[in-house]
Design a protein that fits this description.
By secondary structure, the protein is of the alpha/beta class. It contains 7 helices and 15 strands. The strands form 3 sheets. Strands 10-14-13-11-15 form a 5-stranded mixed beta barrel. The protein has a 3-stranded antiparallel beta sheet with strand order 1-4-5, with no helix packed on it. A 3-stranded antiparallel beta sheet has the order 2-3-6, with no helix packed on it.
């Protein structure tokens, strides 16, 4: 079935410090192909003319701190390798690589399920100060799963340490609120781009509307989910740092822009991946309507963790098929 879903370009402030900046809204549209049976949405956007869009102006006397004095090509003085070195020294830990495929589980549902059903314990050699890592075998692939790293900055902080410890592919599986009503929740979205309405991405890449997934990595996922029961769409999401500032007006705008769901990590993870040359793929597990209705946040059996693991396993297999 073919459907037309608008995809968006949101406000873009331009101009040097002290100049009048123009806040322009442009709404491109995407031709979207819906596939059943484990398929996903495919979209290709075409930008509408700025001249035909409503405009509003704003002025700024100085560049906000989050955009000022960024040297994107400069090497960081504080390195994850050094942090882990000191953590191992303090804790008396041996150095051991993490699995090649690692998973961020912000809600912690996957971690709770594998602890209860498989009896796994935290890896005693994972030196991170802030998290535990669990090793589990899924479809013949060893995964390193970190739970409860919620939000853009925490997700990237942990991701830096995972890649410094031997990770080659990072899969993020975050819960998300539905915007465009693609189908009734719960279902999954392979995120191909994420609106940068958070702060962390601006420390890794210059300002832009979106962070985008590696197109080769997204292409590798094509057909990967046909053999699982879970429904996987594909499209764009809104990444925010402030879930309790998702106003009715903001939600309405994001829906008009065609963003499929709202989550808290993808834009930062994709910016990190692009800046650091890392392989990261993000999924949104759409489970709710932001509590606008009663009986919300139902993920399904085992809090959706088995379906989530099936999606993760399929993605890992697809990546391994092209990476080796």
């Amino acid at each position: 079935m073919l459907a037309v879903i608008p995809h968006g370009v949101l406000p873009d402030a331009r101009g040097p410090p002290g100049s009048e900046s123009e806040l322009a809204f442009a709404v491109p549209y995407a031709l979207t192909e819906r596939r059943g049976g484990g398929g996903f949405v495919r979209a290709a956007a075409t930008r509408a003319s700025y001249s035909s869009m409503p405009r509003q102006r704003m002025t700024s006397r100085e560049t906000p701190a989050i955009l000022a004095n960024k040297q994107y090509a400069a090497e960081s003085a504080f390195k994850p390798e050094n942090l882990l070195r000191e953590a191992r020294r303090q804790k008396g830990l041996a150095e051991r690589p993490v699995p090649e495929v690692c998973v961020l589980d912000p809600d912690g549902d996957i971690v709770r399920q594998i602890r209860a059903s498989r009896g796994v314990s935290p890896d005693p050699t994972w030196a991170c100060y802030h998290t535990d890592l669990y090793r589990v075998n899924e479809v013949g692939i060893e995964l390193g799963i970190v739970g409860c790293a919620v939000g853009a900055s925490f997700a990237v902080l942990v991701s830096e340490q995972l890649f410094a410890s031997g990770c080659r592919l990072l899969i993020s599986m975050t819960s998300a609120g539905q915007l465009v009503e693609v189908q009734p929740p719960p279902y999954f979205i392979l995120i191909d781009r994420a609106l940068r309405d958070e702060g962390t991405s601006y420390h890794y890449l210059p300002p832009a509307q979106y962070s985008t997934a590696d197109p080769d990595l997204v292409a590798a996922m094509g057909g990967a989910f046909g053999g699982i029961a879970a429904s996987v769409e594909r499209g764009a999401t809104w990444t925010t740092d402030a879930p309790f500032r998702e106003t009715a007006e903001a939600i309405s705008l994001m829906k008009r822009e065609g963003l499929l769901a709202v989550e808290m990590e993808a834009a930062a993870l994709y910016a990190f991946a692009q800046a650091r040359g890392r392989s990261v793929i993000c999924f949104a597990h759409v489970t709710n309507h932001m509590a606008l209705v009663e009986g919300d946040f139902e993920k399904g059996e085992a809090d959706g963790s088995e379906d989530a693991l099936a999606v993760i396993g399929a993605a890992a297999r697809a990546w391994m098929g092209v990476a080796k």
